[in-house]
Amino acid sequence: KRPVLTTLFSMFAFSRSERRQSWALNEARAFIAGVVPGIGVEDPFLVPGSIAGALGLCQFISSSYVEFAVDGNGDNRIDLTEDADAIMSIANYLKRNGWGKSRHSHERAVWAYNHSRAYVRAVLAYADAQKKLRNPPAVKPSAKQKSKHFVKKPR
């Protein structure tokens, strides 16, 4: 992890692309104006993030934090390193990007976060696997299994 603000300033200063410089500057502004007050840090250079300047468990960029992050645990702070805040913020992001009852709506909402078909498929496959773990199908033991496990053998 590296400081988000340092990462964004480095992107701005060293990028050869005007588009990337503009993006980094806008993210730095969102970080200073929205993220720093939201998490209540004294030194904004101490907030860790990814190589792209994303922060927290859900890896929101600063502008996504400002738009979608919510206080999930009611402590009047939005700290995306805390499970409740991160989970509720991700749910808010997905819902506001169209998550509904259909598989297509799920694909669209995840696509809004990451424009990679492989990423979308992987996230939804993981979600499907988690559902199966929470609600495993009922398995009835065969007659052989019943006799093996439930009938005492004479000694």
Please provide a brief summary of the model:
The protein is built from seven helices and two strands. With 155 residues, it is mainly alpha-helical.
Distance separating the two termini: 63 Å
Helix fraction, binned, reads: 55-70%
Q: Could you tell me the radius of gyration in angstroms? A: 23 Å
Trace the largest sheet across and list its strands.
Answer: 1-2
Largest sheet: 2 strands, antiparallel
Structural class, please? mainly alpha
* Share in β-strands: under 5%
Mean pLDDT: 90
Order of helices and strands: EHHEHHHHH
Low-pLDDT sequence parts:
none
Q: Given the structure, what is the number of helices? A: 7
Kindly state the number of beta strands: 2
Q: Give the overall shape, derived from the CA principal axes.
A: elongated
List the SSEs and their pairings.
Layout: E1 2-3, H1 4-14, H2 18-39, E2 48-49, H3 62-68, H4 83-96, H5 103-113, H6 117-134, H7 143-150
Antiparallel strand pairs: 1-2
Structure characteristics:
3% strand; 155 residues; two-stranded antiparallel sheet; single chain; elongated; mainly alpha
Polypeptide structure, described:
Helix content is 59%, strand content 3%. It is mostly helical and 155 residues long. The chain has a two-stranded antiparallel sheet. The longest helix is centred in the N-terminal third of the chain and has 22 residues, at 18-39. The protein is elongated.
